[in-house]
Queue: 2 jobs
Job 1
Amino acid sequence: MNKVHHINGSLLLGEDVTSFSEAVANVFLLDVSLVDASSRVIAKQSIQGISHMKGMKEYIRFDLNAENLDKKNDYTIRVHISLHDSDEVMVGDYISTESYSIFPAENNPAPITVTVHEVG
């Protein structure tokens, strides 16, 4: 039987984030277990039509579902908010820059808040 892990939380757009509209947020659950290899995407959620006004603090909810996570592996959340309708990270986009570890041994981990920073 497949065990489904529910990982949810929010993307934090701080008051200092420049105003934008019609952006796309891509939230990834990555397996980062192999040291000398690229990370592997386990789950992804795309959130369309995100807008933000500078001076406001906003939270954008996300919810990822992943089946059969291996307790021995290392997982993390990565976020890319694209202002250019591209999967490629470009100047002016927003990305997560910290590690947000996910522990599959926990049945349903507590919601996490992911802070994003502008690519300069």
Job 2
Amino acid sequence: MAAVSKAQTTVTLKHIAAALAESHEIPKKQAEGLLNDMVGLLVKNLKKGNRIRISGLGILQVRKRAARMGRNPATGEPIHIKAKKKVAFRAAKRAIRQGGGIGLAAAMEVEDAAWRAAAFSADRREGIAAFNEKRAPRWPGE
């Protein structure tokens, strides 16, 4: 059973601005203004279709979602879902490894343990064996 974690706190631009103001010894209003300008520039560039790479954090980009058929969960009736654009975020490896409030070594141990459990479990070995029995050979003599 997974451990129950304490409630997460939502950090807002005001919180970040206050921390920046304190660490750089500038007024809070100025720090808030800088962050608001940065957010405005990010939105402006995303609207243009530009990709935004923030080193150590990740990449923001606009992705196009194709129109598709869906289903109304209440009635089961098919519905048409329009094409749309969405902002996608892909976290940088460094941000992933440093996330969660645990050290890099501990994060890597958890990652290794999870990989070993998935890669070498009996179910996984059984599934791979069944797949290899069913698939056609990729080249002669296999």
